[in-house]
Amino acid sequence: xxAFTILEMLxxxxxxxxxxxxxKASAKIVVxxxxxxxxxxxxxxxxxxxxxxxxGEGFFVFLGFFYLIxxxxxxxxxxxxxxxxxCLSWSYTMLIYLFSKYLGQFFPEAAEMIAxxxxxxxxxxxxxxxFLRLLHERLxxxxxxxxxxxxxxxxxxxxxxxxxTFCANWVLLKEDSLxxxxxxxxxxxxxxxxxxxxxxxxxxARRHAVQTKQESLTDALTGLNNRRAxxxxxxxxxxxxxxxxxxxxxxxxFKSINDTYGHVAGDDYLRRFARAFTGQFSxxxxxxxxxxxxxxxxxxxxxxxxxxxEEIRGFSVxxxxxxxxxxxxxxxxxxxxxxxxxxxxxxxxxxxxMYRAKTDSRAAKNTV
Length: 368
Known about the structure:
Elements: H1 2-20, H2 27-50, H3 60-63, H4 68-74, H5 79-104, H6 112-145, H7 148-173, H8 178-216, E1 225-226, H9 227-240, E2 244-251, H10 254-261, H11 263-281, E3 286-289, E4 294-300, H12 305-313, E5 329-336, H13 343-367
Parallel strand pairs: 1-3
Antiparallel strand pairs: 2-4, 2-5, 3-4
């Protein structure tokens, strides 16, 4: 009956490996190779286990790692990933083995082994699907797709978890062994350290990803949201059917600022405009810098574009603390969905109205 218990563990481990690792050989090759290798290990283990007391004190599990040889040649993943899967798989089956063994002791001695096998089978039926989903869809994804240093960390964590399970098995089956207890304490300490290190690595990577995304959506010169951020927000509003309006803003004669005062002064000119505009209108919407001297102001809700446009046109940047005078700007507004039902069309309407306003302004100045 002990042999059936171990054989079931072996079958479950091979099944887990088969599901999690991508096969590169045909079934006609995999099946006979694995069967032949299993017979070879059974012959070796029968001799080995016969020389050990009781159930071999769980040391038979180590023979299972010889399956790394055929798995490496028959499946696509490398040794590190394959070994990670094996470590987690053996940890799973070993814990169930221990649980079944000790729960079986509540039954009469004559029925203990049968009860152990039945309990082990039932627990596999109840937990295997969940374990496979956890290993295949989540942990294996992290190991395979993460950065190399994170993959190494999860490999070490998998190996450490397996070592903890083996040492726990050793302690439970040989309670008077001081060496087994010391080994369990050490492996628990290592496993805990690696676990927190892995959590730190994931948290740091997530924070770095958030920071990188934020930087990709921010204009480095003015600190405003950039063109990409504008399109993401506007597309989100359009897809949700939420009304909003935009004002396309173009700074007048900005080239003359660069030509007369230099590009450093021109950069400061852009920053002055961004600070002053957001200081006055940040509670009503968001200003985006989408090109050199071009900005878009977006506000949500139902307020009419023309009403907001009049308020924006009355805005001016104070020049008291700067040697560079503010030369004004031209703007044109458009509302969704009143003026256009698509973002490109909406931008086109606002842009054409802005250039019409700029042309009218120049014509008015020439007339004067």
